[in-house]
Amino acid sequence: MAKKTIHDFNQMVANGEKIVYLTAYDYLTAKMQEKAGVDMILVGDSLGMVSLGYDTTFPVTMDDMIRHCQAVRRGAPNTFIVGDMPYMSYQASDEQAIANAGRFVKEALVDAIKLEGGGPMIASRIKAIQQAGILVMGHIGLTPQFMGQIGGYKAQGRSAGDALKLVNQAKLVEEAGAFSILVEGVPSAVGKAITERAGIPILGIGAGPYTHGQLLIYADMVGFYDNFTPKFVKKYANVGEILTNAFKAYADEVRQGQFPIDGEHTYKMKEEEVKEFLTLLESQK
Ligand SMILES: Nc1nc(=O)c2c([nH]1)NC[C@@H]1CN(c3ccc(C(=O)N[C@@H](CCC(=O)O)C(=O)O)cc3)CN21
Ligand SMILES: CC(C)C(=O)C(=O)O
Ligand SMILES: [Mg+2]
Predict the structure, then answer these.
(1) What's the ipTM?
(2) Which domains does the chain have, with CATH numbers?
(3) Closest CA to ligand 1's atom 14
(4) Which of 109, 116, 244, 275 has its CA 20 to 30 Å from the CA of residue 4?
(5) What are the residues whose beta carbons fall under 8 Å from the beta carbon of 39, sequence distance 6 or more?
């Protein structure tokens, strides 16, 4: 299937078709997701937590993101890929934001970038990157790069006043030129209000069923990442358990000499070569 474009995503919204969005961080996973027909892949800075083992997304660097976006691109050459701008790769200035967004496109051939926030400074960054010719996805609600100010990974927009602020942030991000917005960790009523008022595709993660599409962290929905599981995750498989059992079975068989089996998992040598080999060994004594 041909790679989808923003026109396809806008058409899907017009037709009432949901947009399927998942994160991926490596070649193998991206390949499976493309095969499964996922519409859009996010190489999230959750990479830092899910693949690199940090407790937060803060330590993730541009070089980390570029390397993993390249791997995902190789695995999913025909899927729309969004690169997530890591902490401090766009905050300092519009110029810094354009330069780093440009690296994602130039070095990893992503289709769009995403950045967190809904205030006037972020609106300026979105406008600058968009005017440089790059598609920008906004990200509001539970924004992990603001976790210090939020006070942890907590749902947002749970009071009437905070909910209204999020609706207004979505407007600001859309007006700044974002082609789509990801809304994370908000009550369904807030996801619904933002979606109904938007002129661009609204994607949700933990934002209820009314958004134009859904995102999950792939490692959560297959039961791979187990440090914590957000409330909004549904587990579709238990890959962590399957892999752990496979590793245990391998360990047992190696220890008991049951693996490898000679003749099955081994290289063969012609009979005459073995004979000559033994003679050579003998004559070397
Ligand atoms: N593996 C993984 N999945 C994610 O969804 C995710 C990441 N990592 N890393 C970056 C952010 C952090 N996110 C998180 C992390 C934790 C909760 C969580 O545990 N929430 C609790 C309490 C919510 C509250 O206090 O309001 C929950 O029960 O959902 C939610 C989103 C979403 N993102
Ligand atoms: C949690 C999602 C929205 C994200 O930004 C990421 O995967 O980094
Ligand atoms: Mg992120």
Answers:
(1) 0.95
(2) 6-237 (3.20.20.60), 243-283 (no CATH)
(3) 153
(4) 116
(5) 4, 9, 12, 19, 20, 21, 79, 80, 213
Contact 70, 111 (CB under 8 A): no
Ligand 2 binding pocket (C-beta < 6 A) is 23, 42, 44-46, 84, 139, 182, 184, 205, 215, 217
Chain-centroid distance, C-alpha 74? 15
Residue nearest to atom 7 of ligand 2 (CA): 44
3-state secondary structure of 207: coil
Distance CA(159)–CA(153), nearest Å, equals 17
The whole-chain average pLDDT of the chain stands at 98
| pTM of the shown model | 0.97
Best CA proximity match to 189, nearest among 208, 170, 204: 208
Q: Which two tokens mark 22?
A: 């998942």
Q: Based on the residue annotation, tell me whether 184 is a catalytic residue of this protein.
A: yes
Distance CA 112, CA 161 (A): 32
Q: Is 234 in the pocket of ligand 1 (CB under 6 A)?
A: no
User: What are the tens digits of pLDDT across the range 116-141?
Assistant: 999 999 999 999 999 999 999 999 99
